[in-house]
Amino acid sequence: MFRADLNCDLGESFGRYQLGEQKEILKYITSANIACGFHAGDPSVMRETVKLAIEHGVKIGAHPGLPDLNGFGRREMKITPQEGYDIVVYQIGALNGFLATFGEEMQHVKPHGALYNMAAKDSELAHAIAQAVYDVSPSLVLFGLASSELTTAGESIGLRTAHEVFADRTYQSDGSLTSRQQSDALITDTNKSVAQVVRMVTEGKVISQQNTEVMIKADTICIHGDGDHAVSFAKYIKETLESNSIVVSAVF
């Protein structure tokens, strides 16, 4: 029996700016990565997203990003490992405050956007982020790109670590994600996207853009909640996984 977690980035609205259909997509996912105010989100959005996730029985994680609201945290910034450590601790603390008001515990931490991609390749930054998570609570699960520097750092420090794959992204031959600056970074064909996910979970393989077979570990699958058809895609991927004898449940 195969098993996989379905996670989604949520809480990314800000003030009057509304992004995504949270209430609907929460019906189909098992883990929510909630923005903590640096790349998206605000205190009221964080509280409401936590409340909705709890109501739907979805596990909650912090989604710390770079301090870049205008760039949605997707622009790289030159930060030191210590700065990486500090911004992760700060944002985990912000979300933990809201969780405490509901008597709920945090399941995981997943860096966002450029911070996530930088940590996938930079071992020093990856270690700083893993250390930040561990120092806040060794019981937290660290989500990172499958077989990256971030998952390596998490495992070496003693954290439970979930190797993450992406439903709508293409891969390079080294196992990294295709840069969003390239036209072929996203998979827009729903059937192709879901077929890729099923193969990653059941066979541990993905075909790269260089047409090579790459071994990959898939503990958790990221789906994006801000697309035009995000809710219908979430429903479809969950149903397809289950029809392929894959149990959809939180990571641990």
TrEMBL record:
<dbReference type="Pfam" id="PF03746">
    <property type="entry name" value="LamB_YcsF"/>
</dbReference>
<keyword id="KW-0067">ATP-binding</keyword>
<dbReference type="GO" id="GO:0005524">
    <property type="term" value="F:ATP binding"/>
</dbReference>
<dbReference type="InterPro" id="IPR005501">
    <property type="entry name" value="LamB/YcsF/PxpA-like"/>
</dbReference>
<comment type="similarity">
    <text>Belongs to the LamB/PxpA family.</text>
</comment>
<protein>
    <recommendedName>
        <fullName>5-oxoprolinase subunit A</fullName>
        <ecNumber>3.5.2.9</ecNumber>
    </recommendedName>
</protein>
<dbReference type="GO" id="GO:0005975">
    <property type="term" value="P:carbohydrate metabolic process"/>
</dbReference>
<comment type="subunit">
    <text>Forms a complex composed of PxpA, PxpB and PxpC.</text>
</comment>
<dbReference type="InterPro" id="IPR011330">
    <property type="entry name" value="Glyco_hydro/deAcase_b/a-brl"/>
</dbReference>
<dbReference type="GO" id="GO:0017168">
    <property type="term" value="F:5-oxoprolinase (ATP-hydrolyzing) activity"/>
</dbReference>
<keyword id="KW-0378">Hydrolase</keyword>
<keyword id="KW-0547">Nucleotide-binding</keyword>
<comment type="function">
    <text>Catalyzes the cleavage of 5-oxoproline to form L-glutamate coupled to the hydrolysis of ATP to ADP and inorganic phosphate.</text>
</comment>
